[in-house]
Amino acid sequence: MLLFSLFVVLSPSARTNPNVVLFLLADDCDDPLVSALPQASFSSSSELSSSHGPGFARLNRRDGAGGWSPLVSNKYQWLQIDLGERMEVTAVATQGGYGSSNWVTSYLLMFSDSGWNWKQYRQEDSIWGFSGNANADSVVYYRLQPSIKARFLRFLPLEWNPKGRIGMRIEVFGCAYRSEVVDLDGKSSLLYRFDQKSLSPIKDIISLKFKTLQSDGILLHREGPNGDHITLQLRRGRLFLLINSGEAKLPSTSTLVNLTLGSLLDDQHWHSVLIQRLGKQVNFTVDEHRHHFHAQGEFNFVNLDYEISFGGIPAPGKSVSFPHRNFHGCLENLYYNGVDIIDLAKQQKPQIIAMGNVSFSCSQPQSMPVTFLSSRSYLALPDFSGEEEVSATFQFRTWNKAGLLLFSELQLVSGGILLFLSDGKLKLNLYQPGKLPSDITAGVGLNDGQWHSVSLSAKKNHLSVAVDGQLASAAPPLGPEQIYSDGTYYFGGCPDKSFGSKCKSPLGGFQGCMRLISIGGRVVDLISVQQGSLGNFSDLQIDSCGISDRCSPNYCEHGGECSQSWSAFHCNCTNTGYRGATCHNSIYEQSCEAYKHRGNTSGFYYIDSDGSGPLEPFLLYCNMTETTWTIIQHNGSELTRVRNTNPENPYAGFFEYVASMEQLQVTINRAEHCEQEFTYYCKKSRLVNKQDGTPLSWWVGRTNETQTYWGGSSPDLQKCTCGLEGNCIDSQYYCNCDADRNEWTNDTGLLSYKEHLPVTKIVITDTGRLHSEAAYKLGPLLCRGDRSFWNSASFDTEASYLHFPTFHGELSADVSFFFKTTASSGVFLENLGITDFIRIELRSPTVVTFSFDVGNGPFEISVQSPNHFNDNQWHHVRIERNMKEATLQVDQLTPKTQPAPADGHVLLQLNSQLFVGGTATRQRGFLGCIRSLQLNGMTLDLEERAQVTPEVQPGCRGHCSSYGKLCRNGGKCRERPIGFFCDCTFSAYTGPFCSNEISAYFGSGSSVIYNFQENYLLSKNSSSHAASFHGDMKLSREMIKFSFRTTRTPSLLLFVSSFYKEYLSVIIAKMVRSLQIRYKLNRYQDPDVVNFDFKNMADGQLHHIVINREEGVVFIEIDNNTRRQVHLSSGTEFSAVKSLVLGRILACGPRGVGKCIPLTMMSHVKLFIWQPILLLLAHITFPLCRALTADHSGTIDDKEPLANAIKSDSAVIGGLIAVVIFILLCITAIAVRIYQQKRLYKRSEAKRSENVESAEAVLKSELNIQNAVNENQKEYFF
Predict the structure, then answer these.
(1) Taking the domain 629-784, which CATH number applies?
(2) CATH superfamily for domain 31-176
(3) Rounded-to-integer distance, Cα 716 and Cα 733, Å
(4) Separation of alpha carbons 1095 and 688, rounded Å
(5) Where are the transmembrane segments (predicted)?
(6) Is the Cβ–Cβ distance between 271 and 285 less than 8 Å?
(7) H/E/C letters for each residue in 1050-1083?
(8) Topology classification of domain 369-542
(9) Inter-axis angle of helices 1167-1176 and 1219-1248, to 10 degrees?
């Protein structure tokens, strides 16, 4: 082992402090590999002088000019190292030229086995470049993870000191690499036959490496007699692992497991494969990417023969149902369950049969690709064939749908030939000025990343093109014109016009790879091109194909469909239920509580219980009352009767829910409380064996544990409800059923222990005796509230904070929370790495900022609001960072986005604690409240941590300041310890936000009359305090609001009278069908009459009336637009208000048509007037609207409008109620809602199964004939 030290200056992109000096202790594979190499092992693209040659590029050496420098400093220079044989390289280090201003600030690292066909080393699958040096002598060290196994390394400078030139000294660290290799030619294979005694039928471990230029081939295959097989197949450059089990019972009709990994694996570079199968668990790894699979059903046994083939399916009689071809390429270090297959083949062991031409060294096909890096790239080549024609062949691969492939200008006639991609199709275009272009279209979907061959021929007056060997429809003869090339072919693009070229590129340049380029039948020597002796080029990378599959692995989450171009990928989130650049953010809320506080009413909603997590959304019912209930149905809501069971032949009933168990678990954990009603009937069927105490019936919850407690009992007591309440029918037992009586009884109640819910199974074993029977019915899972939604903490000082474990959001991260504050600034959240970090803060009263660094340097995104955020109102913040972009949204303001660099670092690497409400330095902390903090869909329990943290308080009050606006129509927001609710007591509406209007229907002749106090004359001598108090009351103001619709006249809408013959009336006149309001506030004067005859008020439409009186001034508003102010002459006060009448008709005929009054409200005048009414409401029941015939105290003189205006026998009357009547209607509306909900569920259950009603009817019939039923039974059965 070698011990050495290096002074290392690490750049910011190295994800650590840029000025740290490290002492490195070498491990078993950290030997310096370059220092001992001979001069001949170093080569370069060029050298400035003999003293700047590549042999002087050893680290820390000062000989020569102190390092390598090329003749010209540009991005086409390179320094190459030949390690002599394949080595494992674990680290690299660089310096600049000694004592000079020459150093490289960034570079690419490439590797190869043969010195041809180079491959770029990438960090994190996306970083192509390494940051270099900042001066000439400091050493920058990079550990390579994963390591490189190669013979040749090449350093390509990208950027250098602008005041100097390229200068490098390098070192490479690693160790020797040993391997066994076999070369298969596409017709050969290896067959291994093993000892069946040494093999486990449920376990396989296979590891290998391969490299090939072919996109298809069988790598391994093992088959059984019944069609079972395990196959590893290369298809279109991707690896497919196929496992078929004849014993598997999968949900689909197919028993085939198909796992796919990798892409572009036909690049003639080594790729590693590991397959681990243990029973139902399968781990499939290709290079650094892993797919874990857990099979369903009886998958653990695969019936296979005792032989396995590698490279093909050579055994006679073997047949598979999928197309295949043998593998053509090299295999390395091939192990099957620990057996070295290649070593056995080399030793010609009898267990191995080599079929075909098998060699034990890997051939190196000479294929030199070229990469067109940008839309400005081009390769210009002369026509050195000497033929008077246009003829070219090549292969290409790309992800782009459009781009120029080839242009050739024509001689003799002006014009040219264009060969280009358009919408993934190949188009050949011959254009000549003044003539219509001649087009040929060939191929489809050619932007799939696969290699495609193209052959172009244009000779004299004939033009043709072939794609992948398929000749396209040839263009018709072109006439007398002869086609001759002008001598230059432009591949991939056109040079700048300043070069004088007539090259045309209508759809832009080509980005991708080409290889096997030939002109006039002669292969182009790309090395000569690279050295500048043939043609010219721009922005190319010769002898390497730099294509990258940005959709493998697929970073589109939740089933998003990935598509890509050369430099970017795109996620199509349609029909996934998610949105965002990577389909990370759910479009659904996480709970019914969250929907409620968006103002939604009761109904079915999709819930995504884990937010951006892996669980899918599911549909459930949200019952939005003052308390929000989540209702999750299952398939066992009908009554099920059970007979003829015993412990040897038990009955098992299973319950399947509309959500998976994982979804249910998250939903239950978020809820404040959950319950499930279990209705259990029994007749001579015990729950527990009284002799030994063993359970005879039990149920199973989501923990998959047997539970023997029943409704109303806690798990530890193992009792039923009657056992807890002490009212079991037999006091010897804790459950009614254990009395073992020959009559129906029950042990029924609510199961509310959250950790055991929901019920997934019930087992009954004691119904095998004569007359023994049981019946059960399980209600839906009911959960209320959302603990996460209101989970909050208050931060009292700038130095206070909460800390949590490190946030792990390497590839995608989202953070959301609510905050409210009066402070002008403060940090909400911070998590640090070595250089990476995330921070969310209130930068100023109007700016929220998200700062982060994932290794590409710090970025900031800010959202600025026209209003202040420090207004002590709740504000919602959501940030998301993924492979494509970072976004910040605050409330409903326009989101701000920061795109990610196309080839930058992507992994967010944090290692410190997560600080909430402050920072690690205890400075710039947040003052205020933070609520519902979620990271990647998981809620942090702020309240639990705040309880043990100084200067931080659990919870936060003041929700009404933000949510009070949800309470409508006069509803008042009331604070709760957790959340708030809308108090609809003084509103004519009901519902969670006082938005459901209360209405009453008045039929012909029906009315509601309410007496405010007793007859004043009779009560004057009474000792009643209330009567004497109200008798002298004077009412100087009132406000009345109501809405109505009717088609009948005349109609009384409202009549308020006093004991002194004073009154207020609102009527619809018969003849003109207009509204008339009369005030009589003095019995000795005529009433004030206000007529609104501008429109028909009995037109069946909804009309709104507002009457507001302040002493002698009345303000009247109709339908929110017509307004009138009236000064009364009859008086200014109501004296001793007696009663309020809605809809009473003096003369009623036999016919009548009803009228609906949607809402009515009369505001309270003084509290002591309405207080006795509130006490009365609890005793009022249905029907609300009924005909009243009782004669009430007081008389109506002949001048009152009732006698003069209402004489129709079919009047339809509606009206309006004082505050009191509205409370009454509110109560009854709630009752109606509950009644309707019950009917809704009963109807839905009836639709699911008609035999439910018959089963319950039979059971009730049996119960009715029992001689004696106790009170407890009656409560459950009827």
Answers:
(1) 2.60.120.1000
(2) Galactose-binding domain-like (2.60.120.260)
(3) 16
(4) 76
(5) 1167-1190, 1210-1235
(6) no
(7) CEEEEEEEECCCCEEEEEECCCCCCEEEEEECCC
(8) Jelly Rolls (2.60.120)
(9) 30
Biggest alpha carbon–alpha carbon distance for the chain? 133
3-state class of 21 per DSSP? coil
Alpha-carbon separation of residue 815 from 791, 830, 924, 935, 1019 (angstroms): 15, 11, 20, 5, 69
Angle at 209 between CA 206 and CA 210, to 5 degrees: 125
SS (H, E, C) 639-682: CEEECCCECCECEEEECCECCCHHHHHHHHHHCCEEEEEEEEEE
- Enter the tokens of residue 1075: 């509204």
Cα 928–Cα 930–Cα 931 angle in degrees, nearest 5: 145
Beta-strand pair 540-542/561-564: unpaired
What is d(CA 363, CA 341) in angstroms, rounded to the nearest whole number?
Answer: 19
Render pLDDT for 992-1005 as a digit per residue (tens, 0 to 9).
888 877 777 777 77
Rounded average pLDDT per 10-residue block, the chain, 1278 residues: 37 38 56 93 94 95 94 93 95 95 95 92 76 94 92 96 95 94 93 75 86 93 79 93 63 62 92 88 89 65 76 67 84 93 92 90 86 93 76 94 91 77 92 72 93 88 87 60 72 81 85 93 90 90 91 91 92 94 93 89 92 92 90 90 92 93 93 90 88 87 88 73 86 88 88 91 92 92 91 91 92 92 93 92 95 90 95 93 93 93 82 91 87 92 92 88 82 82 81 79 76 53 38 75 82 85 86 84 87 84 87 89 87 83 51 38 29 27 30 33 32 35 42 43 38 48 46 32
Q: Which of 1098, 1102, 1078 shows the shortest CA–CA distance to 1088? A: 1078
Q: Give the Cα separation of 659 and 620 in Å (integer).
A: 9
Strand bridging mode 181-185 / 328-336? antiparallel
Beta bridge partners of 951: none
Q: What is the pLDDT of residues 262-277, one digit of tens each?
A: 999 999 999 999 999 8
Tell me how many degrees the CA angle 584-587-590 measures, rounded to the nearest 5: 95
Burial zone of 1000 (CB within 10 Å; 0-12 exposed, 13-18 middle, 19+ buried) = buried
Helix (H, G, I), strand (E, B), or coil: what is residue 1205? helix
CATH class, domain 998-1012+1034-1145+1161-1174, is: mainly beta
- Distances 849 to 309, 819, 861 between C-alpha atoms, Å: 59, 14, 6
Whether 292 and 275 have beta carbons less than 8 Å apart is answered as no
Q: Does domain 181-246+255-315+323-355 have CATH number 2.60.120.200?
A: yes
Please name the residues in contact with 182: beta carbons below 8 A apart, sequence gap of 6 or more.
190, 330, 331, 332, 334, 342, 345, 358, 359, 360
- CA dist 762 and 774 (Å) reads 12
Decide if 16 contacts 835 (C-beta within 8 A): yes
Give phi and psi for 813, each to the nearest 5. -145, 135
Chain position carrying tokens 């020569």 = 64
Domain boundaries, the chain: 31-176, 181-246+255-315+323-355, 369-542, 550-577, 629-784, 792-956, 962-992, 998-1012+1034-1145+1161-1174
Identical fold at 31-176 and 369-542?
A: yes
- DSSP character string of 193-214: E--GGG--TTEEEEEEEEE-S-
Q: Which amino acid is at 710?
A: W
Give phi and psi for 843, each to the nearest 5: -75, -35
User: What is each CA distance from 1119 to 503, 1122, 1196, in whole angstroms?
Assistant: 73, 7, 31
Question: Considering only the top CATH level, what class is 792-956?
Answer: mainly beta
Question: How many angstroms separate the Cα of 100 from the Cα of each of 140, 839, 906?
Answer: 17, 41, 35
d(CA 482, CA 458): 10
**Distance between terminal CA atoms of the chain?**
85
- In whole angstroms, give the CA distance from residue 743 to residue 835: 75
